From TrEMBL:
Pfam families: 4HBT. PANTHER family: 1,4-DIHYDROXY-2-NAPHTHOYL-COA THIOESTERASE 1 (PTHR43240). The keyword Hydrolase applies. This is Hotdog fold thioesterase.
Amino acid sequence: MEKAANTLEKINAWRKNTMVEHLGIELTEVGEGYLCGKMPVDHRTHQPMGLLHGGASVALAETLGSIGAQLQVDQSKYACVGLEINANHIKGVRSGFVYGKATAQHLGRTTQVWEIRITNEAEELVCLSRITMAVIEKK
């Protein structure tokens, strides 16, 4: 499968007018088999007790895993869509940023599996997630 040349500028442009942009998620690094990003912990991502909402962590994880998967395929022929995601919430965060790194664990012809580690500013584990992606042919 031929992969398109993907720059941070190009993939950050994919955020426009999406939940990713609304939550303030920014993609920060792309490499062979991985993608990194950050998300603010503020009023957009808090739950009522003032902590990072678990769903916001999952949104960051799904964003990184989904875009990471899409970067592995010929984008003119294939799309990657989520089949399953899970998340273990390890540590609470009240402010600042959280940082995610999605790493490919399996890059198959029809499925991909990505692990996403989300850490706080002290590099402590906040959330550990795994997403399974389906690679489907565009019609």
